[in-house]
Amino acid sequence: MLFSQRVVGSVLVIMLVMLGMPAAFALTPEEAVGLIATRLDQSQIKEGPDSGLWSLEGAFLGPIASGLACAYEWTEDPAYRACADLAGGWILDTAVAQGNLLGDEAYALVRLSKISDDPNHNVWQNALVDFYLSPRKHHNESSTEEYLLAFDGLEPSTAVFYLAHHLVGADYVQDQDTEVYRRALLSHLSRVDDNASFPVMAVGVATWALTVTDTPVDSPITSYELPANPRWEGLTVGDLPAILASHQVPEGEPFAGSFYWRLDHTDGETGGVAAGYTEDTVFGALGLVAVASEDSDGADEAVIAAQTALLEGIDEDGYVYQHLTRQGDAYNTFAGEVLQALWSIEEYLGRDAADDVEAGVVGESE
Which of 109, 129, 257, 265 could form a disulfide with 305 if both were Cys (CB 3.0 to 4.6 A apart)? Predict the structure, then answer.
């Protein structure tokens, strides 16, 4: 089986010339999704052998397809669904050729399944069932574990990124080895420290995946196969929400509402900046929303702060950059990830507002 390492958007090499934040460009969430998704639709290759791709980003279709599926859920614009389906077709064809799905590609199939005409039976769901079953087809009971050995050679936060998405995918189709993916995710999370490439992002994406798959809060983080970093000793999944929240930039600090990229809140002697990177904020926000959906007490302020930070990073043409100051590279991958985060926030805030109305907290006659 093939496995590709995620290389887009390394926070270790970006060097920003900080001339202050760009002039305010006040987008609403609805305007943001329209700008981003329309640009992605218009820039996608629609015909020929590369149909479904975006130039130079063939290895990163998963987040783009997921984001467009989220945009369709939000707007019900059929163009966005067609665009997502076209990208999904490329992912399926590549999976057949290579015998593998990356974690973010598997998650894209989850999102595509959810927006299909029959969410309970469709080509995307069938592909996921086949993929997670495939290591066991030869009746080798340890074959899923053997497949997961491929992640041991990755740096820890990259492994966490992919395994978090795989856990959500396996859980979605109720694969019998879902718990194997969960253990692998926790094992690699316990390796994460500031020597990792994306330490806070790893905390965010792990918090999201473990929460949405109903991982028991008393599950220990360090009791699995790989040697753990001492910083995780004695901690459980129930500690992750507070850990993640501690890495969000507070009000009054530069890039408030975004997330630091390192656990020590420094720039890691890179000469760059300590916070405000798009991907850290995307996955930090997804983690915040997942936790808030379970227990919303006091969570709205943090979620809205993350939403505001993400909206400030989108330019008037719908481009999303490596950093929320709209500096660094602009990849469609970042755009897809931001769509995912904004839709997750929209769903959470919409549910929260509906609960308030039902409880009589808002909307009463004066």
Answer: 257
